[in-house]
Amino acid sequence: ALSPHHSKGLGCKKCWIIVLKLCICFDFSLSGVHLDYRSCESLEEILKSVQFNLINLQGAELEENGASSLMEMMLYYESATHLDISSSSSMGVSGWQALSWLLRQSGCLWRLDACNIPLLEFPAQALSKALLSSRLTVLHLENTCLSGKPLFTLVGALKKNAALQELYLCDNELNSYQDAMQLGELLKYNRTLRTIDLGNNAVSDSGKAAMCVCSLMSCLICGIKLTYIYNNTVFLASGLHLQS
């Protein structure tokens, strides 16, 4: 994996081009690097020269204008098949708009990791809009504060999505009533999902929520091949659905 030394920023552009020509690059890591507009623009020579398996922006200090510019270049050059923007919480409206457009238009991007980012208001809307026509097959949204309205927005798009096969939603404090009901609705309409991770949430089949959770579990066995519900309090009634 390529990763510029953090203390020296992105370094000499010509040096990076030489490095790229001397080795076969599969992953490009910019994790933890401060990326303003000027820094992102300087990456164009790299992005147009190599298509990476992974571009890792996890924890990058990605400013709004820089994020927008970088996403536009990634789309134009089809620079990656896997993008990780986890813990990059300063992308701003323009950055999320550019990401949404990238997801809708890219012909090669098949996996997105957007973990540890609060998907509230505009980010949730931008991502959901993209998922209406995205070619993504794997989506990681762990620890993104999805419970409630953000999940409702996401489910509305995923009901119509015909590409996504794996969805990871652990650590989102998803509850047993409203959230379980939304997920049940998703699984009634979506026929492409094959793996769903609901681990480390607040799903329980006790009390008034039992009917919603049991309904969710019934939907899970209709088409989902792998279901993860670890560290939830789902007991006998719902568990029987998964065993049948």
The number of E-state strands comes to 10
Level-2 CATH architecture:
Alpha-Beta Horseshoe
CATH superfamily: Ribonuclease Inhibitor
Strand order of the largest sheet: 1-3-5-6-7-8-9-10
β content, as a range? 5-15%
CATH level 1 name: Alpha Beta
Rg from alpha-carbon coordinates: 20 Å
CATH topology: Leucine-rich repeat, LRR (right-handed beta-alpha superhelix)
What is the CA-CA span between the terminal residues? Answer: 44 Å
As for the number of domains, it is: 1
- Main sheet properties: 8 strands, parallel
Give start-end ranges of low-pLDDT stretches: 5-9, 235-244
Give the SSE layout.
Layout: H1 13-22, E1 27-29, E2 34-35, H2 37-41, H3 44-47, E3 52-56, E4 61-62, H4 64-77, E5 80-84, H5 92-105, E6 111-113, H6 122-131, E7 138-140, H7 149-158, E8 166-168, H8 178-189, E9 195-197, H9 210-223, E10 226-228, H10 236-243
Parallel strand pairs: 1-3, 2-4, 3-5, 5-6, 6-7, 7-8, 8-9, 9-10
Helix pairs in contact: 4-5, 5-6, 6-7, 7-8, 8-9, 9-10
Written account of the structure:
With 244 residues, the chain is of the alpha/beta class. It has one domain: Ribonuclease Inhibitor (Leucine-rich repeat, LRR (right-handed beta-alpha superhelix)). The chain contains ten helices and ten strands. Helix 8 (178-189) runs parallel beside helix 9. The longest helix is centred in the first third of the chain and has 14 residues, at 64-77. This is Si:dkey-288a3.2. It comes from Astyanax mexicanus (Blind cave fish).
